[in-house]
Design goal:
- There is one protein chain.
- With 744 residues, this protein is of the alpha+beta class.
- Helices cover 28% and strands 24% of the residues.
- It is built from 20 helices and 34 strands.
- The strands form nine sheets. Strands 5, 12, 15, 16, 17, 18, 19, 20, 21 and 24 form a ten-stranded mixed β-sheet that branches.
- The longest helix has 26 residues.
- It is elongated and about 140 Å long.
- The N and C termini lie far apart (89 Å).
Length: 744
């Protein structure tokens, strides 16, 4: 444990007051709480041994284990609200420890895939063990909720989801030693009372709560809370029942003046505050989001709320009666004393956030520019400002001094550790969370799969309000705090949950998942490495199965074996192949040790095998040249059936005369006696075009639409025949093509 992470809890250990001891005896002697506070070494484990080597065997080891401080949760489409709550519960160490204490029983509980506590245990274990490199998957948990794929793409309410989760856990924990741990952690008791001013009889009813919903703005009741402290004051603000609204007292047997209100009887170790940012506009009857400025403290002193009793309320009512006779009867209850709190300093860094005391309105900046920075609409700030001497005194106090001061008033001092934030409008948006790590004291942003240290000034940026700029324009900040979680400061607070507390069967499940994931990864890699090559040789083609990591020499052996060829490696080579034009293109080199991946040979790549004799040289391939098939007419033979048809090499921009000379040299025929033709695909009456007339000889071959796939047909010109159009004779190739068309 670092010194920074122990600051708050060390303060709680310094001077334990008598009321702290009483509170500890009252709240911490429950058997459940002894389980929560018990050290990891004292936890019972199923199938666990007492030696350290057995503990190490239970650990989940995986090559993909992340080295980051925390890992995130994958978003299934619209489950960001769930992810932010799950990460907050995961960082609630007491909740995590109790959850790990629960044991799954296949005979008593539902199937594993339908058991919510089991899937939550597994998810928390994955987060703690960091079994996956980037983010843990939540699909197994949502499947246990019996959600389909459509519900994963629908945003649900965070509070509603939390209640469903807690109800499922409580149902599964019935009859165990931790059957009430949810209530022990999150449940408080509130008293709804009516106090008679005459006989002092108090009628009251106790209500339990898991969270407090604090009003931000209510124009009808003229409530405008720009801080959590104000909202708490207004939450328990008393109302006088008098005049036509008098209360009928059973003891007095008549209508009397009375005081009605709420007060706290007990507060939970984890206090959850919901800011009611979503409301209904009664003018338009549309759902709206309140982006108003609401500051919140990092250390909240709840002692003044717990110390209030009926006598205090009566004194307050008497004081209010006296104020009614004074000229200043228009004064509001906002002048009442506010709880002592402190908020973040804007100049603090993310790793060691310094905090400064905050008044009722949460003053964070200098008096000269606080109105421009906090986003409020120019209220009467003079009423909210502390005297300068008191403010200076508070600023000089350190965290430890403030904690000690609050603990001197009572044990109900809370530390903020989770802020769930909503960004967007009432119609939709995105949830993420700022959460404080209890072991190192640093804040982190949990945004689905991404977890990063919190940057400077980020916490104060989620107070909401109007962000002003010097240019004269402003905008509402739609990213603001929605749910706050506070943990009671106590010397018994735990700072870590050991990996040894994870149940063995959860480790086994995770190990199986990791092994399955690694096996799937290996299979994917094998499939990725496997490639099929379509190999062409002469007029035959075949598929050769190989791998990207295989060397060129090994692949060549497979191909030669398939075609039963006894050829040395120096007399054969592989070339890329264009099956459309039946053309062998760029060779793949002569290095037998190069792999197919290095040669960039992908699956289903068409390649051609080329061979030569010992006394022959490889023809150099020129990508800027055309390699044209040329068929010489021979009576009684079809040169098109040859295994390797002859080709003529010619630059792509060469004139036709150069092509004529190259063909003449290739076939040893006088250039003036040649007829060079290509098929005419558009005109049935003239199946061939004669290219080498006097008009075309100076034209470039690409202008004559001669490409790589073009096949040329040549024959010797009969004596006395002129090639200029119109012509009155038919070539042999022309007669052959007409006969073929007739047969078809």
């Amino acid at each position: 444990e670092t010194q920074k992470g122990k600051k708050v809890n060390q303060q709680a250990r310094k001077k334990p007051k008598q009321h702290q001891k009483e509170a500890k005896q009252k709240n911490m002697t429950d058997p459940l709480w002894q389980i929560v506070l018990k050290e990891p070494s004292g936890l019972e484990r199923t199938n666990s041994a007492t030696n350290s080597s057995a503990d190490s065997d239970n650990e989940v080891t995986t090559v993909s284990r992340s080295t980051a401080k925390f890992i995130g949760l994958s978003n299934q489409g619209a489950t960001c609200y769930m992810n932010s709550l799950l990460q907050s519960l995961f960082m609630t160490l007491e909740f995590r420890r109790c959850l790990f204490r629960w044991r799954y029983n296949s005979e008593e509980h539902v199937a594993e895939e339908e058991c919510i506590p089991l899937q939550l245990q597994k998810l928390f274990a994955e987060l703690q063990l960091k079994s996956f490199k980037i983010a843990a998957d939540t699909r197994a948990l949502t499947k246990s909720f019996d959600w389909d794929i459509h519900e994963s793409f629908e945003q649900h309410d965070v509070q509603e989801f939390c209640r469903v989760l807690f109800d499922a856990i409580e149902e599964s924990c019935k009859g165990t030693d931790i059957d009430k741990f949810i209530n022990q952690l999150f449940e408080g008791v509130m008293v709804d009372f009516v106090h008679c001013r005459e006989c002092e009889f108090e009628s009251k009813r106790e209500d339990k709560f898991m969270d407090l919903s604090l009003t931000i703005k209510n124009p009808f009741d003229k409530i405008y809370n720009d801080s959590v402290e104000k909202a708490l004051e207004n939450y328990i603000h008393t109302e006088r029942l008098e005049g036509d609204n008098q209360y009928f007292c059973d003891k007095c047997d008549k209508k009397v003046d009375a005081t009605k209100g709420l007060k706290f009887k007990s507060l939970p170790p984890v206090l959850t505050l919901q800011l009611k940012r979503f409301d209904l506009d009664y003018n338009t009857f549309q759902r709206i989001k309140l982006n108003d400025y609401v500051s919140f403290p990092t250390i909240l002193n709840m002692n003044k709320f717990m110390n209030r009793n009926a006598t205090t309320e009566k004194k307050q009512s008497t004081a209010e009666d006296q104020e009614d006779t004074e000229e200043e009867n228009g004064k509001q209850d906002e002048e009442a004393e506010e709880p002592d709190v402190h908020c973040y300093d804007l100049n603090a860094n993310s790793g060691d956030l310094e905090i400064e005391p905050d008044g009722v309105r949460g003053m964070l900046l200098n008096d000269t520019d606080d109105e421009a920075a906090d986003g409020r609409e120019g209220d009467d700030d003079e009423e909210c400002k502390q005297p300068e001497s008191e403010k200076e005194t508070q600023e000089k106090k350190s965290d430890e001094e403030l904690i000690e001061e609050y603990l001197a008033q009572g044990p109900y001092v809370y530390e903020l550790y989770s802020i769930m934030i909503h960004s967007g409008s009432a119609m939709g948006g995105h949830y993420y969370a700022y959460i404080k790590s209890h072991d190192d004291g640093n804040w982190y942003e949990f945004n689905d799969s991404r977890v990063s240290p919190l940057r400077k000034g980020e916490i104060t940026s989620v107070f909401g309000g109007v962000t002003r700029h010097t240019g004269g324009w402003s905008y509402h900040n739609s990213s603001n705090a929605y749910l706050l979680m506070y943990r009671q400061i106590s010397s018994d607070n735990i700072t870590t949950v050991s990996e040894s507390e994870i149940p063995d069967y959860i480790n086994d499940l995770i190990r199986k998942d990791v092994e399955k994931l690694e096996e799937e990864q290996r299979e994917r890699e094998e499939r990725y490495n496997e490639i099929l090559l379509k190999v062409f040789y002469n007029r035959d083609d075949t598929l050769i199965k190989t791998k990207k990591t295989e060397k060129l020499g090994e692949v060549m052996k497979k191909i030669l074996t398939h075609y039963k060829l006894d050829v040395e490696f120096k007399n054969c080579r592989l070339r890329s192949y264009n099956s459309y034009s039946d053309l062998m293109c760029e060779p793949y080199g002569d290095d037998p040790d190069k792999t197919l991946a290095q040669l960039r040979i992908a699956t289903y790549r068409a390649i051609a095998l080329e061979t030569k004799e010992d006394d022959e040289e490889w023809e150099e391939y020129d990508p800027m040249s055309l390699y044209l098939k040329v068929f010489l007419w021979k009576q009684g033979e079809d040169p098109r059936q040859a295994d390797v048809p002859p080709r003529v090499k010619i630059p792509k921009d060469a004139p036709l005369k150069k092509l004529q000379e190259a063909i003449s040299e290739k076939f040893q025929i006088d250039a003036q006696s040649l007829i060079i033709m290509k098929k005419n695909l558009h005109y049935a009456d003239e199946p061939v075009d004669i290219l080498n007339n006097e008009y075309n000889l100076t034209k470039r071959v690409n202008n004559l639409r001669i490409f790589e796939s073009t096949e040329l047909y040549i024959e010797v010109k009969p004596e006395g025949v002129e090639l200029n159009s119109p012509r009155e004779f038919q070539t042999n190739w022309e007669k052959e093509f007409i006969a073929e068309n007739n047969r078809i």
